[in-house]
Amino acid sequence: MDVPELHPDLEPIAFLVGVWEGAGVGGYPTIESFNFGQEIVFGHNGKPFLTYSSRTWLLDEAGEKVRPLGVETGFWRQLPGRQLEVCLSHPTGIVEVYVGEVVFHKIELHTDVVARTATAKEYTGGHRLYGLVNGNLMWAYDMAAMGQPLQSHISAELKRVGDFAPDAG
To answer: Any idea which positions bind heme b (predicted)?
Structure first.
């Protein structure tokens, strides 16, 4: 199947499109520090938004996969004036709306809305920073949860391992 043309509104965030893989580190006052692997896929269908999916897994000291960790999916919408809206959904019962700005190959986002189901863990906000550095996607996530103030939680460095190919279905 042919990849549709990228919608012109998405040009400021076109550098994200593709399949990214790499590793990162995490920690928080309520958990032990850990290493994780990650795959992020940014795709599009020609409409004015990017599709987004991320999956992570715990890595042991040798860098081998131990078990799955988090999953999130969503949509990234570029708005006029370098503004950006991101909607993310998590299988743990949390939905987030981020707002922010893209400047060249740097994106800074903060939560505007957080919604939780009755069974979701307490989570009140986040701050995400993404940047393209020497061709790699670097990102960091600060979190406010479990009675803790906003603080560093996870960060990773990902390499582009493939181009986005739309589903044949």
So the answer is: 30, 121, 153
In angstroms, the CA 13 to CA 44 distance is 11
Q: Is 111 annotated as a binding residue?
A: no
Q: Is 105 strand, coil or helix?
A: coil
Joined together, the tokens standing for residue 145 give: 């949860």
Residue 30 annotated in ligand binding:
yes
* Percent of the chain with pLDDT strictly greater than 70: 96
Gap between the Cα atoms of 61 and 3, Å rounded:
39
Kindly report the pTM of this predicted structure.
Answer: 0.93
What is the rounded radius of gyration, in angstroms, for the C-alpha atoms of the chain? Answer: 16
Residue pLDDT, tens place only, 83-95:
999 999 999 999 9
Per the DSSP assignment, residues forming a β-bridge with 155 are 25, 140
Amino acid in the structure at residue 128: R
Helix (H) or strand (E) holding 62: none
Quick check: helix, strand or coil at residue 82? helix
CA gap 161, 169 in Å, rounded: 23
